[in-house]
Design a protein that fits this description.
The complex is a heterodimer of chains A (479) and B (428). Chain A has 14 helices and 24 strands. With 479 residues, chain A is of the alpha/beta class. The longest helix of chain A has 25 residues. The chains are: A alpha/beta (479), B alpha+beta (428).
C-alpha cells in the first residue's frame, strides 16, 4: 500500500498528527505495535490522573470534619478497585482513538515498523511483548508487510530510563508501568526522581497511606520548576508526611526477598540506608530510536533523540520526527502541537509557525498541584533580563478559602521595561486548570496592561492570577 | 466546496501586487496546476497556478490594479456546484502569508474563510505595539510574521528585518508624504510651465528603489575607500582560461568576464576578512559564514541585485554561468525572490560604460558595496622607478561604519586588490 503520510506510533503526538494529516486531504496510515493512544492514554497522563482522583477523594473524605461533615465508619482505599477504575478510563480512551482513526479514514497498521529506505517501511511482529493488560487489537487493522509513503513521521515516543545497577525488575523495582497497577499497596516505598512522574506517584501512594521517601539528585524537587514554587510544594508534601532527600543519589539498591534497601548518599557525603517494600525508578525517559533503521538511513540523532528543525524535519528528506522521540520537553501537548505543525508544513498550509519551546506549559498533578509556563525567575536573571516579579497567595483569595484550599501561590515574572510576560508559576489547588490563561496571554504577547484591563470573574481562583500581575507593579488590591 | 484563489505573497517586501494577466476568464474550466494568472511585483513577474480544479468564478482581481496581498481574487467552484453570487469582498484573507506554491495548500476552504479587516490599523500584538512606540517605529512599515500577518515583538526587534513599503497601507498618499526626502508633486511642478513636461507614473520597482535607497543613504553612515588595481595579470589569466574552455557541442563551456573574476575576488576577500563579512542590526552584529555576493544588474526601468551565494566556494566557471543566467532572467523580470534577497556584500560594475570611478550606495543587509570602474591603460610608476604603461582599474569600497571601521575596510580592500593583482591565487 502507498500513502502520502505514514505515522509511526499512535501516542498523543502520533494519532493527532494522523488526524490532522487526514483532515488536510492526505492519504494517511498509522502504525502501532501495542496500544492505540500510546503511553499517555494507557500508561501515563490519563490513568495516573484517574489514580490521583481516587487519592483526592480519599483525602477529602479524611478531612470531611473540616467541612462540617461526619463520615460514619472509615473511608478505605480498595487498591484493586482504584486500579480497575484507572484501567477502565484508559480502555475507554483507547477505544476512542480507534474510533477517531476510523472516522478520519486512517488505516491502522498493526505491528512494529522499520524504515528500510526513504519512503518505505516494513511492518513486522513486535520485537518485545506488549505491556499487559492489553486492549484487544482493533478490528479492520492492516497487517505486517511493506508500505510506502511520501512522508514518514516518526512518533515512537519514549520509555523509562534505567540507572545502571538499579534496573527495574517489575517486582521490587518498579517503573511507571508497575506503579500504575499495584495488586496490593506496599507499606513503604522509595521514589527515585522527583520529576512529574516520580512526584505524582509519590503523592498518590502517600494519599493511599504508604510511607513514601523521595530521593532527588538535584537541589530541588520538580527540578524544572521555579525554585520558590518548588520549595513551597516541598513544604506542603513534607507536611503531608512525605520524606524528601534532595542533592542526593541512590548509589546502590540491595534486593531482599520482598523488600529493597536503598543506599542514599547526600551531597555532604552522608549515607543513609532506607529499607522499603518497593522502589519506583522515575529518573526520566529516553527516546525510542532503536530498531527503526535510522542508522542505515543516516538519520541524525543526538543524546537518544532524533534531531529535527522547528517543523519536525530530520536531515533525511521525507523522514520526520515529532514528540518525545524528537527531544524535550517530553510532554504530550508538545508532541501534539509538533505533529500538527509538521503535517501542516508537509501539506503546504500557509503561515505555519515553528514550535516555540519557550511557551510550552507544564503541569504536575501531585497534591499540591504545580503548573508553569515560560521562564523561571532564576532563568530570566541568567538571561540578563531586568524583571518585575509578582506574587499572590491562596490564603488571600476568597474562593480558595471557601474551598478549604488556602495553601498555594501564583507567581508572575515580567520584563521590567517592555512588560512582556516572561513566566508564570503556580502551586496549589487546580492550578493545572488555571495556567492556560497565562499561556494564551503569552502567545498573544500581552503585556501587563492588557492583563490588568482584563476582568477576571469573582469568586474564582483565577482572580489570583490578576492579583499576581497587579503585585508585580505594586498595585495589588487584596493583600 | 469552492476554493478561494488569493493573491499570494511571493516576495518578502511585498504588500500589494498587480495581476498583469489572467490566462483564464470568468466561467472557464481550469485544472489544478494550470497557470491561472501572472503577478507583477516590484521586482519580478511570477506565474501563479490554480489551487484546485473546477470552474473559475467571481473574478474580482482586475488586471493592472494594486491588490493587497492575501486578497481573494477569484474562486474555483467544483463542476455543477452552486455559485455564491454575492460579491466576494476584496479584502485580505486568512492567507496573507501564503507561501508559494499556493497550489500545494490543501487546506479546506472553510479554514481560509475571508476575514474582513475592520480597521486600517496594522494587526500587532500588544507587546509589539509597545516596543514599536518605545523605538518610535511605524507599525505600518513592519511586515508581520505572526498569524495572518500580525506584527509580533520579533518583527519590531528586527529579528525578521522585514520593512515593507509604507505606501501599500490604507492611505498611501498620506503615509508617503511623510517619507523622508519625499517631494510633494505640486511643489515640484510649479517650477515648470504647464505643457513643458509629461507625467510618468512610478512603477512599483521605481518606488522600491527610491524608498530603499533613501532609507539606506539616510540611515547607513557611509564612508568610502578607493584603490587602483593593476589588471594585466588578470586579463592574461582570463584569456588563457577562456582559450582553454572545453567545447560542449562546439560551444565553449564558459566564457569568463572581468566581472566574474571581480565577483570571485570580492567573495574571497570577504571570506578572508570575516570581520567585514557582516550585517548590522540594532541587536546584533550578524557574522556571515559565507560570502553571498549581490551583483547589480541594470534592467529596463531600474536595477536589481541577484545574489551569487557562497561565491567564495564556487569555481569561476560556475560563477560565470550562474551570473549569465541570473542576469538574463533579471532582464526578463523572472527572478525568484530568493534569488535577489539577502546577500552579505555587493559589487556594482559600470566599467563597461567607460566610467572611471564612482561610489555606490550600500544596500542593507549588506555592509559593503564595491563600485568598479573601467580597466584602462594608464601611465604608472614601475617598480624600478621609471614610468610605464599598465591596465588599471579603479575601485571604490562603500562601507557601513556601524559594522565595519576604516582600518577593517582598508584590510578588505587590500585583500581584494591582492587577489586581483595575483589572480592565480583565486584558482586554488
Amino acid at each position: 500500500m502507498s500513502y502520502d503520510v505514514i505515522v509511526i506510533g499512535s501516542g498523543p503526538g502520533g494519532y493527532v498528527t494522523a488526524i490532522r494529516s487526514a483532515q488536510l486531504g492526505l492519504k494517511t496510515a498509522i502504525v502501532e505495535r501495542e496500544h492505540l493512544g500510546g503511553i499517555c492514554l494507557n500508561w501515563g497522563c490519563i490513568p495516573t490522573k484517574a489514580l490521583l482522583r481516587s487519592a483526592e477523594i480519599l483525602d477529602h473524605a479524611n478531612h470531611a470534619k473540616n467541612y462540617g461533615l461526619t463520615l460514619e465508619g472509615k473511608m478505605t482505599a480498595n487498591v484493586k478497585d482504584v486500579v480497575a477504575r484507572s484501567r477502565g478510563v484508559s480502555a475507554r480512551l483507547n477505544g476512542g482513538v480507534a474510533f477517531l482513526m476510523k472516522k478520519n479514514k486512517i488505516d491502522v497498521i498493526w505491528g512494529e515498523a522499520k524504515l528500510t529506505k526513504p519512503g518505505e517501511i516494513v511492518v513486522g511482529a513486535p520485537s518485545k511483548p506488549a505491556v499487559q493488560p492489553q486492549n484487544p487489537v482493533p478490528k479492520g487493522v492492516k497487517g505486517e508487510g511493506t508500505y510506502t509513503a511520501k512522508h514518514i513521521i516518526i512518533a515512537t515516543g519514549a520509555r523509562p530510563r534505567a540507572l545502571p545497577g538499579i534496573e527495574p525488575d517489575g517486582k521490587l523495582i518498579w517503573t511507571y508501568f508497575e506503579a500504575m497497577k499495584p495488586e496490593e499497596l506496599p507499606k513503604t516505598m522509595v521514589v527515585m526522581g522527583s520529576g512529574a512522574i516520580g512526584i505524582e506517584f509519590a503523592s498518590f501512594y502517600l494519599s493511599m497511606g504508604v510511607d513514601v521517601t523521595v530521593v532527588e539528585l538535584l537541589p530541588q524537587v520538580m527540578p524544572v520548576e521555579d525554585a520558590e514554587i518548588s520549595a513551597f510544594a516541598r513544604k506542603q508534601l513534607e507536611k503531608r508526611g512525605m520524606k524528601i532527600f534532595t542533592d542526593a543519589k541512590v548509589t546502590k539498591v540491595e534486593k531482599g526477598a520482598n523488600d529493597v534497601t536503598a543506599h542514599v548518599e547526600t551531597k555532604d557525603g552522608k549515607t543513609t540506608q532506607i529499607k522499603a517494600d518497593r522502589l519506583i525508578s522515575a529518573i526520566g525517559v529516553q527516546g525510542n530510536i532503536e530498531d527503526l533503521g535510522l542508522e542505515a538511513l543516516g538519520v541524525k540523532t543526538d543524546r537518544g533523540c532524533i534531531v529535527t528543525d522547528g517543523y519536525g524535519k530530520t536531515n533525511v528528506a521525507g523522514i520526520y520526527a515529532i514528540g518525545d522521540v524528537a527531544g524535550p520537553p517530553m510532554l504530550a501537548h508538545k508532541a501534539e502541537h509538533e505533529g500538527v505543525i509538521c503535517v501542516e508544513k508537509i501539506a503546504g498550509v500557509p503561515s505555519v509557525h515553528a514550535l516555540d519551546k519557550s511557551k510550552v506549559p507544564g503541569c504536575t498533578y501531585c497534591d499540591p498541584q504545580v503548573a508553569s509556563v515560560g521562564l523561571t525567575e532564576a532563568r530570566a536573571k541568567e538571561l540578563g533580563r531586568d524583571i518585575r516579579v509578582g506574587r499572590y497567595s491562596f490564603g488571600a483569595n476568597g474562593k480558595a478559602i471557601a474551598l478549604g484550599e488556602d495553601q498555594g501561590m501564583v507567581k508572575t515574572i515580567f520584563d521590567k521595561k517592555g512588560g512582556e510576560l516572561l513566566g508564570a508559576h503556580m502551586v496549589g489547588a487546580e492550578v493545572t486548570e488555571l495556567i492556560q490563561g497565562f499561556v494564551v496571554a503569552m502567545n498573544l504577547e500581552t503585556t501587563e496592561e492588557e492583563l490588568m484591563h482584563t476582568i477576571f470573574p469573582h469568586p474564582t481562583l483565577s482572580e489570583m492570577m490578576k492579583e499576581s500581575v497587579l503585585d508585580a507593579y505594586g498595585k495589588v488590591l487584596n493583600a | 466546496m469552492a476554493t478561494e484563489v488569493i493573491l499570494p505573497k511571493v516576495d518578502m517586501d511585498m504588500a500589494t501586487g498587480k495581476i498583469s494577466k489572467w490566462f483564464f476568464g470568468e466561467g472557464d474550466a481550469v485544472k489544478e496546476g494550470d497557470v491561472l494568472f501572472e503577478i507583477e511585483t516590484d521586482k519580478a513577474a511570477m506565474e501563479i497556478d490554480a489551487p484546485a480544479s473546477g470552474v473559475l468564478r467571481n473574478v474580482t482581481g482586475k488586471e493592472g490594479v494594486d491588490i493587497p496581498v492575501g486578497s481573494a481574487v477569484a474562486w474555483i467552484y467544483a463542476e455543477g456546484e452552486a455559485v455564491n453570487e454575492t460579491a466576494v469582498p476584496l479584502a485580505p484573507s486568512a492567507t496573507a502569508e501564503s507561501p508559494l506554491p499556493v497550489s500545494e495548500a490543501k487546506t479546506p476552504a472553510a479554514e481560509l474563510a475571508v476575514e474582513q479587516k475592520v480597521d486600517s490599523a496594522p494587526r500587532a500584538t500588544p507587546l509589539a505595539r509597545r516596543l514599536a512606540r518605545e523605538r518610535e517605529l511605524d507599525l505600518a512599515r513592519l511586515n508581520g510574521s505572526g498569524p495572518r500577518g500580525r506584527v509580533v515583538s520579533a518583527d519590531v526587534l528586527g529579528v525578521s528585518n522585514t520593512v515593507v513599503d509604507a505606501g501599500a497601507q490604507a492611505e498611501p498618499a498620506a503615509v508617503q508624504s511623510e517619507a523622508p526626502g519625499s517631494i510633494a508633486g505640486e511643489n515640484a511642478l510649479r517650477h515648470f510651465p504647464e505643457g513643458s513636461y509629461e507625467l510618468q507614473a512610478h512603477s512599483s520597482m521605481r518606488r522600491t528603489i527610491a524608498r530603499r535607497l533613501v532609507e539606506a543613504k539616510s540611515s547607513v553612515p557611509h564612508f568610502y575607500l578607493a584603490a587602483d588595481c593593476r589588471l594585466d595579470a588578470l586579463l592574461k589569466l582570463r584569456a588563457e582560461l577562456n582559450a582553454a574552455a572545453p567545447l560542449i557541442e562546439s560551444v565553449p563551456a564558459y566564457k569568463l568576464s572581468v566581472n566574474d573574476l571581480v565577483i570571485k575576488a570580492y567573495a574571497l576577500a570577504l571570506a578572508g576578512v570575516p570581520d567585514a563579512n557582516v550585517s548590522w542590526t540594532d541587536e546584533h552584529l550578524v557574522r556571515h559564514s559565507h560570502s553571498d555576493v549581490g551583483v547589480a544588474v541594470s534592467v529596463p526601468g531600474g536595477l536589481i541585485t541577484p545574489i551569487i551565494r557562497q561565491a567564495e566556494q564556487k569555481s569561476l566557471s560556475t560563477i560565470s554561468n550562474q551570473m549569465k543566467d541570473l542576469a538574463a532572467r533579471a532582464k526578463a523580470g523572472k527572478l525568484k525572490p530568493n534569488e535577489y534577497q539577502g546577500g552579505t556584500g555587493a559589487v556594482s560594475n559600470l566599467g563597461m560604460y567607460g566610467v572611471k570611478e564612482f561610489a555606490a550606495i550600500i544596500n542593507p543587509p549588506h555592509s559593503t558595496i564595491l563600485a568598479v570602474g573601467a580597466g584602462e591603460k594608464r601611465p604608472v610608476v614601475t617598480a624600478e622607478g621609471g614610468v610605464g604603461v599598465a591596465t588599471v582599474m579603479s575601485v571604490t569600497l562603500s562601507t557601513d561604519h556601524r559594522a565595519v571601521d576604516g582600518a577593517l575596510g582598508a584590510e578588505l580592500l587590500a585583500k581584494f586588490r591582492a587577489l586581483i593583482e595575483n589572480p592565480l591565487s583565486m584558482l586554488v
